[in-house]
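Discussion board: Methods & Data

I've been asked by a reviewer to show the raw model output for two of the constructs in my manuscript, not just the figures. I'm not sure how much to include, so I'm pasting the format here to get opinions. Each protein appears as its amino acid sequence followed by a line of discrete structure tokens. Is this the kind of thing reviewers expect to see in a supplement, or should I convert it first? Here is construct A:
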Amino acid sequence: MLTLSDTSTLSHEEKDALLQEKDALLEHKDALIGQLVTRVQELLARVQELESRLSKNSRNSSKPPSSDGLKKTQSLRRKSGKRPGGQVGHAGKTLRQAAVADHVVEQELPEHCDACHAALPVAQAQVQERRQVLDIPVARHEVTEYRTLSLVCQCGKLHESRFPEKVTEHVQYGPNIRAVAVHFTQGQLLPYARTSELMADLYQLDISPGTLHGWTREADALLSPSVQAIAQQVSQSPVVHVDESGLRVQAKLQWLHTSVTPTHTWYGVHPKRGIEAVNAFGVLKDYAGVLVHDCWAPYWLIQCVHALCNAHLLRELTFLAQSSGQAWPQRMMDMLLAAHRGCERARTQGITAVPSRQVLRWIGRYRALLDEGQALNPQRVKEQGKRGRAKQSDAFNLLRRLRDHESVPFTNNLAERAIRMPKVKQKISGCFRTFSGAQSFCTIRSYPDTARKHGVGRLDALRAAFNDAPMEFVGSGRIVTGFRLSASL
């Protein structure tokens, strides 16, 4: 190959051709280097994405805890500085003696003194100390027999009494037994076969699983109007928490949906997970309040104010703090948790609103951290010639959600706690054999869960329903017609 020192014998045309060839080689070299740099950047981004996937777990993302395996994860909890156990000022609870005992057993004295052998006047003995043992009696079902009477008047007319309206069979089960059985299967999540065994052990009643299933269908019919009223109350609430989870029905994947407020709980099951199910239920179809959720895409189609669960956002911030090396995610977590603790302190002190100056400081700090994060994670521009939108980084997407949806309340725990028990039901029993059975579970579960939020025991609420007086729950109160609850409530 010729060098510039060898060009003394070349003509001007040959020298120009040689220079042009050199320039072309340099341009090709620069283009090749540019391509290699671009490819390296793409591969680095791909490696970072794959490493990010491997480093995600239930503590720094929305992955379920079952996906963690045996890996040790970092907890979001922080030391409170308090000593373990009950705190100063905590109202402790202990067993207290009853004023009146159901049974009294007096420990007998000897008839004669063991020193002088004189007779002891036992009738004059005084109670020195009392100790009580709390226990439950061995339960057994009671049998109530109804008899009709007949009598012929002196005029010859025959008079006959009638059975109560609900006593229609030669032998039948009463409302308390049906309420307890449905409470075991739908409230305590026991399978029908185990409930049958438990009823035999507790009450000496031989009840078949088929009979238990029939009572479940009966409870579904009795409670449907009350649950429709619960759905109406939820749809009118200013803040609603929503969540959804997979539910196995007839060996197929269906979807359990829940809409929850502090005073009401509603469940529904549908073959679809998205907006089709929301529209079919109708609970949130025209909702206009604040909807708290975990950023599942179909919820954005509801025309209302959206608030994101900060528990999910904290997990995403934890992941970014671990993977990006940037400081703003940890500072954002500290700020959010500090604001949450401040609001909790205000609630415990009976304060209905945090001072505006403190709120403004939180908001200013929050938005300053957003600006810091967005400066470090700018929006990516779509490359020329590529279709679709440019794929943004996890940090940019999270920052956009944090800016667009400043969340109130802090978490979506109300909805997530409501989802938890149906998942336990599925783990115990495997799946629902029929879609109608899953619907019955949702209907029945909505009613006692709402009752519990109003201070009514689940079993008492079911007793009221089987006594033809299901409760209606309006606002923070309850309406009970035709059935008297126990005095303890």
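Construct B, same format:
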Amino acid sequence: MTNNAIWLIVDVGTSGAKAALITAAGDLRRTATESYATFSAAGGVNEQNAADWWQAVIAACRAFGDDIQHVGAVAVTGQMQDCILLDADGVPTHPVILYSDTRAQTEADLITERIGADRLMALTGNEQGADSLWAKLLWLTHHQPGALQLARHILFGAADAIIYQLTGHASTDTTVASTTGLMNLQTRRWLDVDVLDAMGIGACAAKLPPLVAGGGQVGPVTERAAAVTGLPVGIPVYHAPGDAGAATIGAGSGEVGRAYGYLGTSGWVAFTSAAPGSPLNGVFTLAHPQPDRYIQIAPLLTAAGNLEWIKEVFAAGAVDEFITQALARPITNVIYLPYLNGERTPFRDPLARAAFIGMGGATERADLGRAVLEGVAFGYRHALDALMPQPPERLILTGGGTRSVGWCQLFADVLGVDILIGAEAEHVGVRGALIAAQVARGELPGYTPPNFPPIELTLTPDAERHAQYSAKYAVYRAAYPAMKDLFAQMGR
């Protein structure tokens, strides 16, 4: 494809589906986003509807009008570690069980007892628990067997579901597969059937999709998909790596080297390495699209989602105004623990919950808002401590949360490192999906093109505020261990 050729990149996130028209040279032309709902309930239940994802993608494509007809190729990325059941026509047989869903704790305990935590860790390269897909599949086996029986395909990433609708082909990329607990990290193959049998989910083996390295071509757009999206029939569709992989590449960290952070509804800090990380340090290792590379990542279950939650609780207006009012307040002693849906790094605890500590009679609403912004930044500092023995000199920060320069400055002050904001940082997943597909096509020699990514802004920490935050961070670090048993007593 020429540099002026138009790609459609689809990124199916936690709160909405983004579609982008971008040239092969990386010039972003147009974007459209359509949102969808999440259903949450007691017991760690978090679900979405895969049909809603597809309708959102259709609407986003239609928003481009006649421009959609000029697309020459499609690449799709999206949220990872979901349990998606589709019949042969692509109709869901059960709501999507999201990565943040922790209802399967009993099943996780049962499988861990059967297989052994050490063996599971050795096979998958990561610590496993209630968010593992084998636990969720066993939960479905126990509680919704009919949904499993009706399913023709079990998929694990939002991109899988959209690509199936576009092409009629089932697939999961290896980056997503490495989050599930169902793939051998070294061989990059699904676990053997005898292991799945021992887990009690052997019947699922035949429904697992083919694995592809992120960026690989899956199939052409079908006539049925073209009719509803407006895309040309027969153009190629590429399975980009899941959102963490696409963001890693799009942030300029696709080759071994610098660390970056992603600030979205969920979040993480990560870097590409030549060897797996240690799960004993709270680090997850994902499969890089390149066979001999890994992505070491410290994921946070809920990042900017904490801001979305508190804004809704307060029935606040525009998010920019809410952040401005919060940051106008001085630093207080109020601590916020950002564990709305439990946590994965630097500790695994599905029962951990959000909490305000230290409120007094003089505490105002804006003080609580500031505490939430600080608490999320503290969570990133905690995750970075687990990921890297020595903090980096600088951290590239990406994702939708970077739209607030004030919040990014707070990150610099809390972490004590320069924060680098790339141009159009909220679109790193789009750019990463494009680059992965171009590498797979042989159009790029590596995952970090020259002079990439372009840095738009550098924020330097304020020494005085960093000292204040370091003292407050020490209290933050002590808060969860002090409350862990209380969270457990409160139950699921």
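Answer (T.O., handling editor elsewhere):
This is acceptable in a supplement if you add a one-line summary per construct. For B, something like: The first strand starts at residue 6 and ends at 12.
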